[in-house]
Amino acid sequence: MDDSSDEVELPPDDVERLDLDDLAGVFRTLGMARRLRIMRLFVHVSDTLCGCEIADILQLEDYQVSRDLSALQKAGLVGSRGRTGTWIHDHVVDGANPTVMQLLGTIGQLPVAPQIERRLTVTLGFREQAGCVLGVGDPDVLDALDRTACSSY
Description:
Arc Repressor Mutant, subunit A, globular, 3 strands
């Protein structure tokens, strides 16, 4: 028996409507500035980020980032690549709708504030050496890091 006969093909108008409904959901999710800032980080680094790193870099509360990551996951924008201890590494989902990929490209072109760029660079630099590092959002910690191992950043 041919399994393909069980599939129902949607008329082109219905396919377009479904794509637009999905896209509208993405726009609703990104309608919050915090979520847009989080996505900008993901697109900017082209790598995984841990929720605690995002909270530290953007100086947000952990619970806010957790809720926003959950919403971004439900919208199909972010997925999990695994866990290291208590840290869950999230990333931009590969192979999204071409229109969503264009949108992410536009988000990637948004400027990143110098202080955010600096926190991000320090965080990712330390991650390579020691795993997840918190506190880089604190100016005193940044100054201490600059005086020690981070002078090359």
